[in-house]
Amino acid sequence: MANLMTEFPEIEIKQDEPLMRYTYTHTGGPADWLAFPKNVDEVKQLVTYATAQQLPLTVLGNASNLIVRDGGITGLTLILTKMDQISVNGNEVTAQAGAAYIDTTIAARDHSLTGLEFAAGIPGSVGGAIFMNAGAYGGETRLVADRATVLLPDGTIKELSNEELDFGYRHSSIQENHGVVLDATFKLTPGDHDQIKAKMDELNARRAAKQPLDLPSCGSVFKRPTGYYAGKLIHDAGLQGYTSGGAQVSKKHAGFIVNIDHGTANDYVNVIHHVQATVKEKFGVCLETEVRIIGRN
After folding, report:
1. What family, per the record (predicted)?
2. Which of 225, 243, 263, 267 suits 146 as a labelling partner, its CA being 20 to 30 A distant?
């Protein structure tokens, strides 16, 4: 295989780059090749090349609700954070996949558009929000996302409607069609700027009061089990403060695992497995991970 830095001299590409420099957990081994495309054409070039070379392809946004294993990632990894343009047209906000979801909510607020307040503190990218149907405080991406532009594995670019995105709980059709989200358009409602700002400030204050924002973490680790709350189950199982290596069940919010001392991805996975086993034993409830765990062991 050719050297990707030689193949694509106009694109920032790094070889054997430690992903712990980019993940919110501060963990993760090296990416064989890590590329930072600046626009749709560069994404298409890289995806086409990876397909032709049968090179495994991984796409990351802000790497916030993600654990990259200590062995790193095989093949080509794209980080889309250089594609961060946001535009407003009437009641619609369109954001490129690498734009921060938080910045998108600020653009909506600044144009007195309501509907995205729930996402004011979600640290992921817009592409990640579409991929995972990100949600918080009773809001979900599916309620405001009108459409998304997606690069499909066969090289075609298609605009998918809300219905075609097939949103579910922490799910979208992107997880099955293996497309790359390029941008998303949110259809919002005119509102009062001060009320929108007050709601966002309130939710951010609640988040800061309850969540361990001062430590590296991967966000909410587990999906909400039907009829329960994951954090309460973990708390009631006496697991707050449980530590493996440098990873710990947060003492502030039991639904979070934080990196307290140079923790590794393996430490995170060990804590997750212990929490799952303990909650299953004590309450008979199977906790499914919301966080994505990817890469080589």
Report:
1. Belongs to the MurB family.
2. 225
3-state secondary structure at position 235: helix
Spatial separation of the C-alpha atoms in residues 182 and 47, rounded to whole Å:
12
Percent of the chain residues past pLDDT 70, beyond the cut:
99
Q: 263: Cβ–Cβ under 8 A, 6 or more apart, which residues?
A: 25, 26, 27, 216, 245, 246, 247, 248
Q: Which one, of 137, 47, 243, lies nearest residue 33 by Cα?
A: 47
Main-chain phi, psi angles of 4, to 5 degrees:
-65, -30
Q: What DSSP string describes 185-196?
A: EEE-EE--HHHH
C-alpha distance from residue 53 to each of 10, 32, 91 (Å): 20, 14, 42
- 248: which strand partners? 243, 258
Percent of the chain that is helix, strand, coil (3-state, to 5): 30, 30, 40
| Cβ(57)–Cβ(102) below 8 Å | no
Alpha helices in 38-177 (DSSP H): 40-52, 101-110, 126-132, 162-165, 174-177
- pLDDT for 281: 97
Burial degree of 30 (CB within 10 A; 0-12, 13-18, 19+): buried
88-107 tens-digit pLDDT: 999 999 999 999 999 999 99
Helix (H), strand (E) at residue 293: strand 292-294
* Amino acid at residue number 176: E
For the annotated catalytic residues, the residue numbers are 170, 220, 290
SS3 track for 16-58: EEEHHHCCCCCCCCEEEEEEECCCHHHHHHHHHHHHHCCCCEE
pLDDT for position 113: 98
